[in-house]
Protein: 3-keto-5-aminohexanoate cleavage protein
Amino acid sequence: MSKTSKKVIISCAVTGATHVPSMSAYLPITPAQIRDQAIEAAEAGAAIIHLHARDPVDGRPTPDPAVFRQFVPDIAKATDAVINITTGGSTRMTLAERLAYPRLLQPEMCSLNMGSMNFSIHPVAAKITDWRYGWEKDYVEGMEDTIFKNTFSDIKQIMLELGAQGTRFEFECYDVSHLYNLAHFVEQGLVKAPFFIQAAFGILGGIGADPENMSVMRATADRLFGRENYHFSVLGAGRHQLSLVTMAAILGGNVRVGLEDSVYIAKGVKAESNAQQVRKIRHILEELSFDIATPAEAREMLGLKGGDKISP
Structure:
């Protein structure tokens, strides 16, 4: 591997579509909040900024390009971080809604969920007694009876349409089967190495947060793709975030943090910003003698087209 490939890429998922405002007063929901937290996270060391949008009035997930345009151009002007736009949106959105902004932006990178699945945090509803907005309770409880739809046809459409624009993907794999789904598309010639595989642990409906599962995912990816052909990254949901991503770096991988994945900075302590999580994992990694990849180095590692090729 090249020298730069040994550096650790820190991704930051700023707000997501799973957590609701009642879970944390620090979850960014307005365009200004998302913009400011994304810029601060980039300044703290995140080379990749993973972005969703929310309705500025009540914080519900939205695919509206007009909302994205209230913060993405500002982030692009203020930082050289890689802008990574979701194609997952939320479990309630249609594929056309999920693709609305990526089609316009033609970003360097988009997330791409690699299979349909149960995807839920519905047990959290029982722990919340004071809901900030009227939509939240039904949204969280409704996850118990909702499928996150990512069919082979959906995945193929995203690969073909956005791939033609030069967009590369953060392949979000929530279980071992998702790695095999990715291998299917590799065999079809729809995606080319180097692959950026984001292994997600601890989501109800996906693979558990047991450390042993990381070894299974890593070994399976090695067998399917060859370690020289992909970059492994890990996100840990909730309380598992920092321990699992630290383990990922020790195993030669990259890390993702952010309020999309966990609203905590320590046991029982809410993170006050995305940058706080970035600073903490950066400190841990540097104490372990890891070098942190800059955005330019991340672009080289992942074969991205460059921030000057997007249209914010």
About this structure: Residues 1-5 have pLDDT under 50 and may be disordered. The first helix runs from residue 31 to 44. The two ends are 33 Å apart (CA to CA). The domain at 4-309 is CATH 3.20.20.70 (TIM Barrel).
